[in-house]
Design goal:
Layout (H helix, E strand, L loop, with lengths): L14 H10 L4 E7 L2 E8 L2 E6 L5 H8 L5 H4 L12 H11 L4 H20 L5 E6 L5 H8 L4 E2 H16 L13 E2 L4 H4 L4 H8 L7 H7 L4 H13 L3 E2 L3 H10 L5 H13 L5 H13 L3 H15 L4 H14 L3 H15 L2 H18 L2 H13 L4 H14 L3 H17 L3 H14 L4 H13 L3 H13 L7 H14 L4 H13 L3 H17 L3 H15 L3 H13 L3 H17 L3 H14 L4 H14 L2 H17 L3 H14 L4 H13 L5 H14 L3 H14 L5 H13 L3 H18 L2 H14 L5 H13 L3 H17 L3 H14 L4 H11 L6 H11 L3 H20 L1
Antiparallel strand pairs: 1-2, 1-4, 2-3, 3-5, 6-7
Length: 867
């Protein structure tokens, strides 16, 4: 959109020129013309006028009436009030809907409105104009466009200018719509020369109404109405009324018609009818229409007129001005003069005080001081006067003078039991001089006694924090002691006093303040600060159990675990020193409940239980401490604790198992002893599984060759019926012993191993025979070789059996039985050494015996084969 005006909203074209330009260029847009806050709008489309807006309202109603399209009585059902408040679009829709007229009638009315608007605006001198191309339209304008309104601008301009030219002939006449004109009788020579409209307007003229009301009631087009009015004025048929006539007219009006009354009376004053009664009447009328400014002026004018003749009435008028609060200073000065002339001291002092207050508010300090001093001398309220004088002194930067007046004011307030005023004044004094110790202390105590705790506290704090004041320590202490009474929750104050008393070696007073500080911090839930205060109290009065309990609990609540544990420990130590074992146990249990994972607390509790002979409780807590120490990686402590546990419960397998686990994690020199003792206890208590597990552990940690540990393991494997593992471990140990040259131990171990297999393991038996042979124990070697031959043959290991028999030949002096065994082996017959010996013996004793022996041998061989 484009706007055809300069930056200051001053038109650069004449209105008629602008309209002509829009028309000739076939432009579309919205033209706004403004004068005295009245804004008319004209809408153009393609250079033609299609709509307009008259801001005064009621245009459609008036146009329908003056065009005689509808009578006012036909439109009255649609009027709910002033016609200026009727919405033109709504009215048009209602009329059409009721069938009172058609769209043509509405269009005619709209055309007439546009003509009147053009006539109006073309008569304005230098109006503000603004043309917006393609500007937005309102609802009423859009309605006119939709109705098909379209008027050529050239015709509107010509008609408008013609009307303006005609109106200019009557420019010397007064056409102010708010003025009044009264009718004169019509001479016969004039009556015949008047047109019908002039007769109509003259006959319907109401002398009580304004020009605007009469023209509107006559239902004439605005332009036509003005021409007709001018005609009547030209023939002296309408004239301006005299002042007396206006007053009579005003008095004849209804009481509620205050608007017309005020117009008439003000017109009468302009015509010279100026007296007090008229001003009083006007003031009341102004009040009726809520114009305080106008009413105050009228009351003042009335009071001035009544000053000498009726002073009491003048006072009433001035009091009305005071109530309105406008032009108060003029009214007060007039009242002062009135009361001074009447020698009314009471009223004079009261009014002087009001005048002083008013001048103070206006910043007229010298005048305020003069009025206040005179009011005080005349006996005005001392409290108000002194306060006012103090305020004025402050504004003049005279603090000393202000304090003097305030002291007098506070005494006056106290004497009259005006406590609230006293407190306010005291606060004001402290505001002027906050560092005055004596005043602050007295005022604070007074306020505190009267329940003004916060005000008293503020006074003390201001006195203490005044950077310009220099106070002795004793004075500050006095103030702070008062503050401690006023506000027990002021932790900062208690803290300051505690430090002060401590520096001055007054431990009793310092500890008392610390106790109060702790109470305040606890009440305000300042727990972090509270624990520090407990530390200070303990430092001051010693580690008393009651304080230690509070401190320990608070530290636990704040999550200070290590600090709380230390405090619990100190508490328990203190109670033990006092031989109060019962409370020591109770607090130890409480601490453990708070910190169940603290090994130190469990150790403490275990020692307490052990001291009282409660073996079960001691074991319980020592066990827990061992678990926690082990879990935290403190194996040295865990070992020490287990040692104490073993004193209490030496045959506890589980404790020893835990000790073994710790030994596995952190090896030490006595680990083998620990495991050996555990294995022995496990075997003793028939916990073979545990014994076996720990025997394996012992083998793992033992230094090579670990014969004892391995031997013990093999024995446990035997007891556990783990034959295969026993054999494997046994053979390994056997070979290691042989390699180490420990033959006797190897022989003993191999004998046990053979025995554990029931002598049925051919390899073990053969190895035992070889070991015996190596040790030159031929008898035992022959015995086990013989047994090995039988086992080899049973296992169908003929070659091994034959090798074994060859070994026997080298050991026996008479190898006949061995040779016979070889023959039996080669013949795949079972070898039975008993049968072979029997047969050999039989051959030695004869044939019968041989036959008998043969039979025996054959039977034995058969049995051996069967076996």
């Amino acid at each position: 959109m484009q706007s055809l005006s300069d930056g200051n909203n001053v038109p650069f074209l004449q209105l008629a020129d602008l309209i002509q330009s829009v028309s000739s260029q076939n432009q579309s847009g919205v033209l706004t013309i403004t004068r005295d806050k009245e804004q008319f709008r004209v809408v153009f489309q393609n250079g033609s006028t299609v709509a307009c807006t008259d801001p005064r309202g009621g245009a459609l109603y008036s146009s329908l009436c003056w065009l005689k399209i509808l009578e006012p009585k036909q439109l009255s059902p649609f009027m709910s009030g002033d016609i200026t408040e009727v919405d033109d679009e709504d009215l048009a829709q209602l009329i059409i809907g009721q069938g009172l007229t058609d769209e043509d009638g509405i269009r005619d009315a709209i055309d007439s409105i546009i003509e009147e608007v053009f006539t109006e605006i073309l008569g304005w001198q230098k109006p503000e104009m603004n043309f917006v191309i393609d500007g937005e339209t309102n609802n009423w304008e859009q309605f006119q466009i939709n109705m098909g309104t379209m008027i050529q601008c050239s015709g509107l301009l010509m008609e408008g200018l013609r009307r303006q030219d005609e109106l200019s002939r009557y420019a010397h006449l007064n056409h102010n719509k708010e003025d009044l004109l009264v009718t004169e009788s019509m001479p016969e020579e004039v009556e015949g020369s008047l047109d019908e409209l002039s007769h109509h307007l003259w006959e319907n003229w109401n002398d009580d109404n304004t020009i605007g009301e009469n023209l509107r009631n006559a239902h004439l087009p605005p332009w036509q109405g003005l021409i007709t009015l001018s005609t009547l004025q030209h023939h002296n048929l309408l004239r301006a009324p005299t002042a007396a006539e206006l007053i009579v007219l005003a008095n004849s009006l209804q009481e509620h018609d205050y608007k017309h009354k005020e117009i008439l009376l003000r017109k009468a004053i302009t015509l010279g009818a100026d007296n007090a009664r008229i001003h009083l009447a006007l003031a009341k009328l102004a009040l009726a229409r809520k114009s305080k400014e106008r009413a105050s002026k009228d009351f003042l004018a009335a009071a001035e007129a009544l000053q000498t003749t009726e002073p009491e009435e003048a006072v009433k008028a001035l009091e009305q001005v005071m109530k309105l609060g406008i032009h108060s200073e003029t009214a007060l000065n007039s009242l002062v003069n009135t009361y001074r002339n009447a020698d009314n001291k009471d009223k004079l002092s009261e009014t002087l005080l009001k005048l002083a207050l008013h001048n103070r508010d206006l910043g007229k300090i010298p005048e305020a001081l003069q009025a206040a001093n005179e009011a005080r001398e005349l006996g005005a309220d001392i409290l108000t006067c002194e306060q006012l004088l103090a305020e004025c002194s402050i504004k003049q930067f005279d603090k000393e003078q202000a304090l003097m007046h305030l002291e007098l004011a506070v005494h006056a307030a106290m004497d009259s039991d005006r406590n609230e005023d006293s407190i306010a004044i005291l606060q004001q004094m402290i505001g002027i001089s906050p560092g005055h110790i004596g005043a602050a202390k007295s005022y604070a105590e007074y306020l505190f006694e009267n329940g003004q705790v916060e005000a008293a506290k503020t006074i003390i704090e201001q006195a203490l924090n005044d950077p310009h004041a220099k106070h002795a320590d004793e004075e500050i202490v006095q103030l702070r002691e008062v503050l401690a009474q006023i506000d027990p929750s002021d932790t900062t104050n208690h803290d300051w006093l505690a430090h002060f008393y401590k520096e001055h070696k007054d431990r009793v007073a310092a500890s008392a303040q610390l106790v109060k500080l702790a109470e305040a911090q606890e009440k305000d839930q300042q727990y972090q600060e509270l624990t520090e205060t407990y530390d200070r109290i303990i430092e001051m009065v010693g580690a008393q159990p009651s304080l230690l309990v509070k401190q320990a609990r608070l530290q636990a609540k704040l999550g200070y675990e290590s600090r709380s544990i230390r405090t619990w420990d100190a508490l328990i130590t203190k109670l033990i020193q006092q031989d109060n074992l019962k409370e020591a146990k109770e607090h130890a249990d409480e601490a453990i409940q708070l910190f169940p994972a603290c090994k130190e607390l469990h150790i403490r509790r275990g020692k307490l239980a052990n001291k009282e002979g409660d073996r079960a409780k001691a074991i319980e807590h020592y066990r827990r401490a061992v678990f926690l120490a082990h879990g935290s990686g403190n194996n040295d402590l865990a070992r020490k604790l287990i040692a104490q546990l073993l004193v209490l419960q030496p045959e506890d397998v589980l404790i020893r198992c835990q000790l073994a686990d710790i030994a596995k994690e952190t090896p030490q020199e006595d680990d083998d002893e620990i495991l050996h003792a555990l294995i022995k206890l496990a075997v003793k208590s028939n916990n073979i599984g545990i014994a076996l597990e720990r025997a394996r552990q012992r083998v793992q940690i033992a230094e090579a060759p670990a014969f004892d540990a391995r031997s013990e393991l093999i024995e446990l494997l035997r007891r556990s019926n783990l034959g295969q593992e026993e054999k494997q471990e046994g053979l390994t140990l056997f070979h290691d012993l042989i390699e180490a040259g420990d033959y006797n131990r190897a022989l003993t171990f191999l004998e046990r191993l053979v025995a554990s297999t029931g002598g049925q393991d051919s390899n073990l038996v053969f190895q035992l025979a070889e070991l015996y042979e190596a040790l030159e124990r031929e008898r035992q070697a022959v015995r086990y070789y013989r047994h090995a031959v039988v086992l080899f043959q049973q296992e169908d290991r003929k070659e091994d059996a034959l090798n074994c028999l060859q070994q026997l030949l080298t050991l026996t002096k008479n190898g006949s039985d061995v040779k016979q065994a070889i023959e039996l082996l080669n013949a795949n017959q079972a070898i039975n050494w008993e049968s072979i010996r029997t047969e050999i013996n039989t051959k030695k004793h004869g044939s019968n015996t041989y036959r008998k022996s043969d039979s025996v041998v054959m039977r034995a061989q058969q049995e051996s084969a069967d076996h």
